[in-house]
Structure formats: C-alpha cells, structure tokens
Write a structure and sequence with these properties.
Layout (H helix, E strand, L loop, with lengths): L1 E10 L3 E11 L4 E5 L6 H8 L7 E6 L2 E2 L5 H6 L1 E5 L10 H5 L1 H5 L4 H14 L4 H4 L9 H13 L5 E5 L7 H18 L2 E6 L2 H7 L2 E6 L2 E6 L1 H6 L4 H7 L1 H8 L4 H4 L5 E2 L5 H11 L3 E5 L5 E6 H6 L8 H4 L7 E2 L4 H11 L3 E5 L5 E6 H19 L8
Parallel strand pairs: 3-8, 3-9, 6-7, 7-8, 11-12, 14-15
Antiparallel strand pairs: 1-2, 1-4, 4-5, 9-10, 12-13, 15-16
Helix pairs in contact: 7-8, 11-12
The structure holds adenosine-5'-diphosphate (ADP).
Adenosine-5'-diphosphate binds next to helix 1.
Length: 384
C-alpha cells in the first residue's frame, strides 16, 4: 500500500533528518511512528503527502511513485490530522467537515449525508453540532471534528501527527477509544505519529521506532515488547512494561490436568465419567497420549441410542489447540477468537499435556492483578 524504498531527507547538505528508510505499510494497517523528539517521525510522515519532499529514494502508494503525482491531488486522497486541528473559525462545523468532499465536487446531498454520518460516528449529533462554530466546541470535540474532517473525502490513507497530545488525559483516552472503534468500521491505512508509548501500543497494529532519522525496529507492539532489537528500544519502551510482559505465567503454569478417554470407549461409560468429574467434554487420546479430538456431552447424548457408537464416532477432530511452547497470550487470543471454553495443550509430537480453560485463566489473571496492585500500593496502605 505505502512503500518507502531507501528514503532519506537531508537538510543543509549533510544532516540526515530521515536516513535511508525502508518501510512497507499494508492496506488497512494502523501504524504508529514513535521515537524521541527530533528523531524524524514527522518528516517521515509528511513525505507521504509531499508536505516535505524526500531528498532521495522512492515512496510508492498503490504501486505508483508519488514523486510523479500532482501534490494537490495526492493530498486530496490522504486525510491529515494535526495537533492543533486548525478548523476554520468562521465556518460552521458542517462546512469545515465538507471541505474536501466539496473540492472533490460531491453534490450537496452526498456532502450533507457524509457530514451527518461522520458526526454521528463520533457521538456529536448532527442536528446539534453541524451549525455550530468551532469556538463553541470543547477541545476534545474540536479534535473529534478534526479527525472526521480528515475522513470526509473517504481517503484510503490518513496521516495523524500527534493528534491527541494537546488534550487532557481523559479526553485523550476517549478519543483513542473512538478512533479504535472507528477504525474497525472504516479500515483506513493510518500513519500516526506520537511520542506516547502507551498510545502507540494501544492503537497500532505495528509500531515503527525511530532514532536519529533511522527506523530502528518496525514490528507489532507484542514483538517489540518481547524482543526489543537493542538497548535503546528496551529502555525507550521502559523496563516496567517489559517486566510486566515477562512476568506473565507460562502455559505450563496455567494448564490443568485434562480428563481424557480412549477412542473405543462406549458412550454410556463416557457419560458416567463426565458426570463424575462434572465436565461437559472429554479429550480423546490414543494409548500413547496422542490427541485425537474432543467429545462433547451434546454429541454423546444425541447419539446415545445407537449402542454401536463409541467416542471416536462422535468426537470433533478439528478443534483449536495450543502448543506447550507457545505463550500464554497466544492461548488467550485463541480462546477469544474461537469462542471456546477450553484449549487442549499439546507438545511438539501432538501428545496431550494439559488443558487451559477460561476459568483457569481468570484465576491466573486475578492473581496477577492482585500482585501488581500490591506492588503499587503505598507502604502502610494495607488494611485501611
Ligand atoms: P520528530 O517528528 O521525530 O520530532 P522531525 O521529523 O520533526 O522529528 O525532525 C527531524 C529532524 O530534522 C530534527 O532534528 C529537526 O530539527 C530537523 N529538521 C526538521 N525540519 C528541518 C528544516 N526545515 N531544516 C533543518 N532541519 C530540520
């Protein structure tokens, strides 16, 4: 979608504000650029809409070199939000939002519809807000308008340069939540510059970390937290966050002993076993403990009248499982993505080693929270 090939921005002959960057941003991806002040984040971002021209290298959007495109037309298809949004003070909110659609020569009905729909999306009812002037809105509301104005012409790409950094912490959190919500609906390709690490972790699919004009690491927040490429990234992200991640328990620590049975067991005896252990599914394994599938109480009951049937006839073979070598958050993701109550834990040779259930996870998380809170509690604060 957006590709940087060997892109540099050089000032005064030899100062590399951006130094030979390669970057590949996928369609619909939310990218945050983060790094110390002066590391080249804004410059990198502004080269995408040619507010700053690259000194060397190539930037492609949808396979086309932006250097060959008319910058004005290019910008019409790239939304742009900055810290002080710069709504035009003498124009109503509605007119401010409709600026780009009008430039794109949308007819009035389409413009009106778009303005109303966007205002509603960020919780500003059109009837109430459309005809107000910017000065009649709070900072947070103005910034919301700034965000939707950038979306108004339905650009595939939106650039956001520290859009929330002038807001108070509560409005800021709210706008971040709204932006995430909005992004699930509109799936734009977003490049977001921030110096707030928590903001980047919360919002971005991938984070690019910059230092002295170089892109030091570009990866998911998860991977950066787990595998910072160097000491700079580790300290920049903060040792606290790393420790929190590193202290997540392992799958082995969380898993419980599964109740299993063999494929040729009959349905009646299986039901009795399930009742005894108060469980609603049996994990089916062969004699060498290799995992074969899961037999649920519903399936067993449905086929109960057929006396010839055994567990292997009713078990489900395609069920999500997790490897012992995976991380606990992989297990959490699998459980929530697949909407299952439990995950069998297998070793590399597919043998059943344990079971992670929603309940066992809740216990672990509760303990974790408790111990984190205890660490954070002021001395002498207990027992109050
Ligand atoms: P960031 O967004 O990470 O704070 P910038 O991209 O704004 O950093 O700037 C990167 C570097 O380029 C900084 O050292 C800045 O001072 C320098 N720089 C930016 N614009 C110019 C300019 N017009 N002339 C000279 N140096 C500049």
């Amino acid at each position: 979608m957006i590709i940087f090939k060997n892109v540099s921005k050089i000032y005064n002959d030899d100062f590399h504000a951006v130094d030979t960057i390669d970057l590949h941003i996928k369609e619909g991806e939310f990218i945050a650029l983060i790094g110390p002040s002066g590391s080249g984040k804004s410059t990198t971002m502004k080269m995408i809409n040619r507010l700053i021209e690259a000194t060397s290298g190539t930037i492609l959007i949808h396979g086309q070199d932006i250097g060959d495109q008319d910058p004005v037309l290019l910008r019409r298809n790239i939304g742009y939000v900055i810290q002080h949004i710069g709504l035009l003070p003498h124009m109503t909110i509605g007119k401010n939002i409709a600026l780009v659609p009008k430039l794109k020569k949308w007819d009035k009905a389409r413009c009106d519809k778009r303005v109303d729909e966007l205002l509603e999306m960020v919780g500003l009812p059109a009837k109430e807000y459309k005809n107000r002037f910017p000065a009649e809105l709070s900072g947070g509301q103005q910034q919301r308008v700034g965000v939707i104005r950038a979306l108004a012409g339905d650009p595939p790409i939106v650039l956001m340069d520290e859009p929330f950094s002038a807001l108070d912490p509560i409005s800021r959190e709210q706008l971040q939540d709204e932006l995430l919500n909005l992004q699930t609906k509109i799936r734009k390709t977003i490049v977001f510059v921030t110096h707030d690490i928590d903001e980047a972790i919360k919002l971005a699919d991938r984070i690019g970390i910059m230092q002295d004009g170089k892109l030091i690491q570009f990866d998911t927040p998860e991977q950066i937290l787990r595998h910072p490429v160097n000491e700079f990234v580790r300290t920049f992200f903060g040792a606290d966050r790393m420790n929190q991640v590193e202290s997540l328990p392992t799958i082995e620590e969380v898993m419980i002993r599964p109740i299993s049975s063999f494929p040729k067991r009959g349905l009646a005896e299986s039901l009795i076993k399930m009742r005894k252990y108060k469980i609603d599914s049996l994990l089916v394994v062969d004699r060498s403990e290799t995992f074969l599938g899961v037999a649920g109480v519903g399936e067993i009951q449905k086929n109960f009248s057929n006396e010839n049937m055994v567990l292997e006839d009713v078990m489900k073979k395609e069920v999500p499982t997790v490897r012992l070598s995976q991380q606990l958050d992989d297990a959490i993701n699998l459980i929530s993505e697949n909407q299952v109550a439990f995950l069998p834990v297998l070793d590399e040779s597919h043998k059943l080693k344990g079971l992670i259930t929603r309940a066992s996870l809740v216990d672990v998380m509760a303990n974790q929270l408790r111990s984190n809170n205890n660490e954070a509690a002021p001395v002498g604060g207990e027992g109050l």
